[in-house]
Amino acid sequence: MSNELMNKKNNRGVLLGAAFLMATSSIGPGFLTQTTVFTQQLAASFAFVIVVSLILDVFAQMNVWRIIAVSGLRGQEIANKVLPGLGYFLALLVVMGGLAFNIGNVAGAGLGLNAMLGVDPIAGAIISAIIAVAVFSIKEASKIMDKATQIAGMIMIILMVYVAFKTSPPVGEAVANAFWPEQISLYAIVTLVGGTVGGYITFAGGHRLLDAGIKGVDALPQVTKSSVTGIAATGVMRIALFLAVLGVVSQGLVIDESNPAASVFRLAAGEAGYRMFGIIMWAAAITSIIGAAYTSVSFIRSFSPIIEKYYNWVIIAFIVVSTATFALVGKPVMILILVGALNALILPLALGIILIAAYRKDIVGTYKHPLWLTIPGVFVVIVMGILSVMTLVKELPKLFM
User: Fold this and answer.
1) Cβ distance 36 to 241 under 8 Å?
2) pLDDT less than 50: residues of the chain
3) Which of 73, 118, 313, 366 is the most buried (most CB within 10 A)?
4) Upper half-sphere CA count for residue 229 (Cβ side, 13 Å)
5) What is the CA radius of gyration of the chain?
6) Structure confidence at residue 4 (pLDDT)
7) 250-256, long-range: CB within 8 Å, 24+ apart, which pairs?
8) Are the C-beta atoms of residues 302 and 136 closer than 8 Å to each other?
């Protein structure tokens, strides 16, 4: 095989890996619960929420990935060029958010193994963390990560589509509501956008491509395709889960409020369905552990040559701290509330920085950023900015109650 063909094959693997790293990072335990709960509340109208959120997601990701590729800089480096010191603040938010939510991912992995194999949740969490650590202890960690996220993503999609098919949802009603909903929930749209491309997920795929050396104006067609593929994979998963829940709800079956996502699978396919839920939950959680650790640490690697040198070991330490916190303390509610509120700020802040950088010649050189990306990007920044401030105002008082 010629070097050119080898490079094309390797590039294709990296591009697909970056897409699935972003997609599987967003498809965590919270994704499963959010989608189930909102479908219960909005029924077929949730289809409209999915369509709108996917459109906003695509514009957010395309803007971020393109400017990272053109500039050849990571998010924190771009931010420091836009305003000195801003990159450190952005890195602090991303690392705090990534660490806190990784505690939830570790918990989700434990619950997934419990549903799949009956393993004790804490033991399951520790086993899952060991597997994630093993990925980063291998010399070819990046390639293993790319393959693992692709395989896990495909397994989740196949199982989810199967369960959706089993529940016989009213597809026609869902399609009609996708364009003309009976009710609209702005809160659901914001939650989905924040959960899909917010926090560390905003930069997951872009940083992976940069680490693989895929950058520059010439790489933009590949970068754009990869970013859209990531959102498409997330969308397929979201739609399949939505249809599965809609099928259960439309049959008048009662979903267990204590574990809504697991309940849907059990109602749809009995005990086998519950085991499938375990597989999906575990795959979603462990890929989110990997994605959160990798991306969060990528935000501090450029700040110190020591971190750069021992990059994989810092990622491993990040996973160990998350797991130890869950195993010893459980989910620290106050920290999660605070970081959850701060995390809402990351998308509008990050995307705002990226859009300013897109018009700075000292960052992007002679590259001309298209208006058809800038205008929707500004819209996402304004809407998510206003709603994230509202979230902060609502959530912060809970710390003192």
Assistant:
1) yes
2) 1-6
3) 73
4) 21
5) 20
6) 46
7) 250/43, 250/169, 250/170, 251/167, 255/36, 255/40
8) no
Q: Which two tokens stand for residue 149?
A: 């996220």
Q: What's the CA gap between 96 and 345, in Å, rounded?
A: 13
Contacts of 334 (CB under 8 A, 6+ apart): 399
Distances (CA, A) of 135 to 109, 192, 344: 16, 29, 30
Sign of CA dihedral 172, 173, 174, 180: positive
- The DSSP secondary-structure symbol of 217 reads G
Query: Which stretches of 27-140 are DSSP H helices?
Result: 29-42, 46-71, 75-82, 86-117, 121-137
CB distance 322 to 383 below 8 Å: no
Instruction: Show Cβ contacts of residue 353 under 8 Å, excluding neighbours closer than 6 positions.
Output: 75, 78, 79, 82, 86, 90
Query: 275 with 115: CB under 8 angstroms?
Result: yes
What is the length of the chain?
Answer: 401
d(CA 360, CA 188): 34
pLDDT tens per residue across span 18-52:
888 888 888 877 788 888 888 888 989 999 999 99
- The helix or strand, by DSSP H or E, that contains position 211, with its residue range, turns out to be helix 201-211
The single residue listed with the structure tokens 């990925």 is 135
In angstroms, rounded to a whole number, what is the distance separating the alpha carbons of residues 136 and 313?
8
Task: Give the pLDDT of residue 313.
Answer: 93
319 CB-near residues (< 8 Å, 6+ apart): 102, 129, 132, 133, 136, 289, 293
> What 3-state DSSP class applies to 143?
helix
Q: Report how far residue 278's alpha carbon sits from residue 185's, in angstroms, rounded to the nearest whole number.
A: 29
C-alpha 52, offset from chain centre? 17
pLDDT digits (tens, 9 = 90+) for 163-173: 888 888 999 99
Neighbours of 289 (CB within 10 A): 31
Pick from 297, 13, 285: which is nearest to 140 by CA?
13
Q: How many other β-carbons are positioned within 10 Å of the β-carbon of residue 341?
A: 19
Q: What's residue 5's pLDDT?
A: 43
How far apart are alpha carbons 303 and 176 in whole angstroms?
50
- The H or E element that residue 353 is part of is helix 333-357
Q: Nearest 10 degrees: CA dihedral of 135, 195, 394, 321?
A: 0
Report how far residue 19's alpha carbon sits from residue 236's, in angstroms, rounded to the nearest whole number: 13
Q: Which two tokens stand for residue 94?
A: 């991303």
